Amino acid sequence: MRIEIDCITPPIWRRFSVPSNIELDQLHSIVQAVMGWGDQHAHQWVSVHHSTDNGPDRYIAPEVIERDGYQEDEFGEDEVRIDEAVTAVGEYVRYEYNARARWSHTLVLEQIVEDQPISEPSCFDGERACPPEDSGGPIGYREFLNGQASNGLFDPERFVPAESDAAVTIAVALHKSPPVGSSLFEKFLRSLSVHSAPKLFAAVAEAELRGGYDNYFEVMREGATRQLLWLLNSARGRGIALTASGALPSDHVAAARGELDWDSDGIDVTAGSDPQLAVLVEVAKTLKFVRKLRGTLILTRLGASVLAYEGELWRHIVSAMPLGKGELGQEAGRILFLTLAAGLSEFERSEVMIEGLTALGWSTTDGTRLGDDDWTWMVRDTLVYLRMIGAIVSNPLDEHVSADPEWGRRFARMVLSK
After folding, report:
1. Which residue ranges of the chain lie beneath pLDDT 50?
2. Which residues touch 392 (CB under 8 Å, ≥6 apart)?
3. How many CA atoms are closer than 13 Å to the CA of 153, on its beta-carbon side?
4. I need a surface site. Which of 98, 163, 191, 346 has the fewest CB within 10 A?
């Protein structure tokens, strides 16, 4: 098949192959990938060879049908295969994207391969870069190019077949295992495109976001709540009287070491110094379960309420994730949970965090490229919690091999599905 953007000179086009039995909703994802669009606007297909009394048939997205209902000339794009929309070499359909900007594409069937059936879509040819997402349609794009002539920030001639083909591979994988519909993470992904964050979308394809939890539920719940449950129970009633330095007393340090199976390295029971316990208190304060009052660590109303009902602590933790404040903390936290769900190594996690945050427009205060220290600071609250419960574990032998437990991956999937 060959697709070309209408009303653009020189032409912007791609040539790609697809199995004949795919529905138009999957072809939509492939077109977005081969062209380089970000799937941020509505779309529809218009048939040239099929029509009703009202005009050409239109094939539209299921969510549009669910919202507005059918018109007489409309059909669900998930109900029509590409070999039903175009049946012979030379036939074509129009793909319309972003009605306000009037981006229209002509998609032509150039060849039918019968002796070697195509199993997976691929892109292998094309010319020129896709216009920026909101450059204003064909007329606006010409004005955009005139304005870009002096600074060279956008190269209209750039097209790398391997990049488009990789984007198609990711689009196919996401179609087979997409995020949970209407989840916050699905909405988050809509603010990105495969071409702006290919490693992030490759991680989405690996994350199996609709995977089951049954065999891991109890392990997940215990892992996520055990340490916090110990602290909250310890602070019941009158709370925990702190030392003059603001630390927990030595009997609580000793109890934590025994009951939570913590490593004793670095713990001075007499002095009451324990970095692990300090982190636990910090996390509990971030979750607003405890606070300090006149030298005593006490439960907040929320802390008392999550203890009062079975399972409430677990439900609150899942709903509270990610822990970061503001848009930056939430976006960084979702990417972090994605890296955990996908089973990425420390090295891969850093790559995806930097790529994703950069694609979202975040940068350092001086405008330089984000580094490890930057993203870990951006996602600090969530990262501290996940490290504390052992869902994210450093591999001291090889940063390219993940040491995170399977229950941590399942926990991340659950968080991303809400």
Report:
1. 264-272
2. 340, 383, 386, 404, 408
3. 7
4. 191
Superfamily of domain 2-176: MM3350-like (3.10.290.30)
Q: What is the pLDDT of residue 150?
A: 63
- Residue boundaries of the structural domains of the chain: 2-176, 179-418
